[in-house]
Amino acid sequence: MNRRIVSFETESVEKIVIPNQVFLLFGMPGAGKGTLTKGLLDSVKNIKHISTGDIFRQHIKTGTELGKQVKSIIDSGSLVPDEVTLDVVATELLPQNHDLLAYALDGFPRTVNQAKLLLNYLDRYKFPFKNVLYLKIDEDTAISRLSDRLTCRSCSASYSTTFNPPENGACKCGGELYQRADDTPEGIYKRLNVYKYETAPVLQFLEKMELLKTIDCNGDNLEERKQQALQILNSSD
């Protein structure tokens, strides 16, 4: 059986500028939040990507006090305390730049309390909060994706051993690939349960604000997914 290689179109195009805003990428683990963000970063000049997971993993890698504090929590598939996570996000959301940049929040908020804390922060500093991109995916598809995912220790790029296998067993940047502790069968089960009982209620909370835009992420057409997201973000006036 031929392997399907999924990737965004790579032809060189001039990057666009989208309206300044804060937008969320929301979906269960394995929905493709990081993958979609990479596609947007390749196409949009003024996006600043804020991934709480990547930030925490960098702290763990460099052995900071924060990294030591959150390592066991993340490895177990649990959520980092709300106030700690908001502090990390706040250091990346710079009020002086909110009229220039489009901030993509990936992995936050994950609880209703985090959502309320974020909304208070955005309102206080007059950030334009315009869209929640809900990446909808079936649970079976999410489990399949997470089970064969490999992550680069250096640049955090993700590969699939089935659909996007790395060449020569290494990342394009030369970094070592590994399976994250929360991508093991036990870790996946724990993460999906945390999503169902703690994160999914955030969806209902955000839906009431009428900012939710749903993108079907069950298929492998990443370019189509990216174009849907760009149309939504570029129409934010």
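The record above closes out task 2.4. Task 2.5 opens with a second protein, given below.
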Amino acid sequence: MNLRDLFDLSFVNRRDQAALEWAGATYTFGDVDQRSNRMAQALAGRGLAQGDRLCVYLANRIEMIDLYLACIKLGVIFVPINILYREREISHIVSDAEPKLLITERELHDLVGTAVTPPAILLARFLRTIISRPTRSTFSPGGKLRNTIDSCSLCRCFTFTRSATACTAG
């Protein structure tokens, strides 16, 4: 049994129970699972697979949870970037993490200029691609996810602190 199996077990007999509240809306465990399945399908459709890194530069919003859970389902390493960081820190993190994709609310060149340019997509565009997408009740890309990913590879998340990104003063 791995982390993904435990995650799936948490939904058993709870699909209709409230899982979280956000901005005045209540989401059931089934809603959260379905939303993260859609995100996982969309990320896989963009070529993300086990071991790839996804940088996310977003303010607190429900889609952060959806993206994090989608990464767990895919075995993708979730790399959140603090929204208080600016060009120098963002450039360092993106350069160091070498993400396959970066999801943000602003155009990437507005964030980091032209120094670092991984493939990036605006969250609004990304969400439009998944709104009409039918959702499978479970997500298992290629039918291999359940048997090939161990619990360690499922929970990887890079976190960069201010000290890790700071340049020498002077």
